[in-house]
Amino acid sequence: MPGDLTLAMSELDLPSPPDLGRMRRDRSARLRSLMADKGIDALVLLDNSNVTYATGATWPLSDAGRGNVERPVAVVLVDDEVPHLFTPFLADAADELGLDDEHLHGPTYLDVDEGVETFAKALGQLVPVGATVAIDEVTGAMHQARDILFAEWPPRPASEITSPARVVKTPDELACLRHALWITEQAMVEVQAHLEPGARQVDLTAMFLHRAFELGAEANALDPIWQVMPAHQADLPWTTHGDLACPLLSSERILVRGDVLWVDAGITYRGFHSDFGRTWVVGEDPSARQQAQYRRWRDVMDAVLAVTRAGAASSDLTAAAMAVCDGDRPWMSHFYLGHGLGLNSAEAPYVGTDLGDEYDRRLLLGEGTVLVLEPVLWDEGHSGYRSENVFVVTEGGAVNLTDYPYDPYGD
């Protein structure tokens, strides 16, 4: 992006490599500080990304049918710097996190009655009687056994703690995130170099994933999308929301010269998700009309970046984008102008959603917030242009973490 609208990466002073132990300690301190402020004695966390945030643990993806049954669970106590982790991957957690036997526990199966009963006994040994507990998810079996699990019902929502803790990233977290982006970008270099008529979408997927895992990706967070965008919206599948049918899953479709591809992909590294979005043209240079779409997209992005800084309201960003487009919203109605990124592919904050303008006016951007901006310029009859960039919000503006050109449209 233009140098006068984004700050240099050196502004962030990211560690290389990231200090994972320090990152875990910083997260623990942030959670426990917020817990103390809110009067919460214990957090019980089932959501995968919350467990990763609280403990630093990552684990191999498993069969989707086992994903919930065998998921790790974290318990964070306000007066204990070290979280408790219940996991089926004991050896991995012990090696990676250095947890002692007091804080590392075997798996707990909270979708079945017997598992909840066992967990209730373990929780009773960790949490004093009458303590205030917050939780992020409650399974059906936990709901049925709520009298033996919780001193009061309903328990406090863990989002009171996890949401404000996770929205602002530490330098070590940003370093992990930047490395996840680097892996994705390097893999995309190889894919784009082999983009030509006759390639299948699944061929591009295989090439991308092979290279990404060679470079250290730990998981495929989003099945890569190489969506061919037709000239007319009517040539896409019908949607209930009336906007573009996007994204669509990749298939064995064979690409032909002149296809406009909207590309989207993401992997994980140390639990952090990357996000990549660009528009490519298969086998030829963009036309003058397509170049004009790209320049319009740049105008929108520049206008949004001009008002992006710590303390800005999300409505400032949406207003700036719409001003370029005569009041129209240059993003898809079922998505957003921007979203957060970290331990999920999309997380708070969300800018320009169907929650409405009043929500955007109340949502203020904080320093250290990661924001993925993804304007969309649809040009009915001539397809359109879409790209994504990942930024860190600072007091002075925004730092661009994305380091990938806009070929074949420009630098």
Number of helical stretches of at least 4 residues? 12
Structural class estimated from helices and strands: alpha+beta
Overall 3D geometry? globular
Order of helices and strands: HEHEEHEHEHHEHHHEEEEHHEEHEEEEE
Number of domains: 2
Q: Which homologous superfamily in CATH is the superfamily of the largest domain?
A: Creatinase/methionine aminopeptidase superfamily
CATH domain topology of the largest domain: Creatine Amidinohydrolase
Quote the distance from N terminus to C terminus: 9 Å
Q: Low-confidence parts, pLDDT < 50 over ≥5 residues? A: none
The chain-level mean pLDDT equals 94
Describe the sheet with the most strands: 6 strands, mixed
What is the beta-strand fraction? 15-25%
What portion of residues is helical?
A: 25-40%
Cα radius of gyration in angstroms:
23 Å
* CATH uppermost class of the largest domain: Alpha Beta
Strand order of the largest sheet: 4-3-2-1-5-6
Question: What's the β-strand tally?
Answer: 17
CATH architecture label of the largest domain: Alpha-Beta Complex
What do these coordinates show?
This protein is α+β, with helices and mostly antiparallel strands and 411 residues long. The protein folds into two domains: 20-166, Creatinase/prolidase N-terminal domain (Creatine Amidinohydrolase, Chain A, domain 1, 3-Layer(aba) Sandwich), CATH 3.40.350; 171-400, Alpha-Beta Complex (Creatine Amidinohydrolase). 34% of the residues lie in helices and 18% in strands. The chain is built from twelve helices and 17 strands. The protein has helices spanning 20-38, 48-55, 90-97, 113-126, 140-144, 146-149, 159-167, 171-193, 201-214, 288-307, 314-324, 357-362, and strands spanning 42-45, 73-77, 84-86, 104-105, 133-135, 156-157, 219-228, 260-269, 272-273, 276-281, 338-340, 347-351, 370-373, 376-378, 384-386, 389-393, 398-400. The strands form four sheets. It has a six-stranded mixed beta sheet with strand order 4-3-2-1-5-6, covered by helices on one side. Helix 1 crosses helix 7 (159-167), helix 8 (171-193) packs across helix 9 (201-214) and helix 10 (288-307) packs antiparallel against helix 11 (314-324).
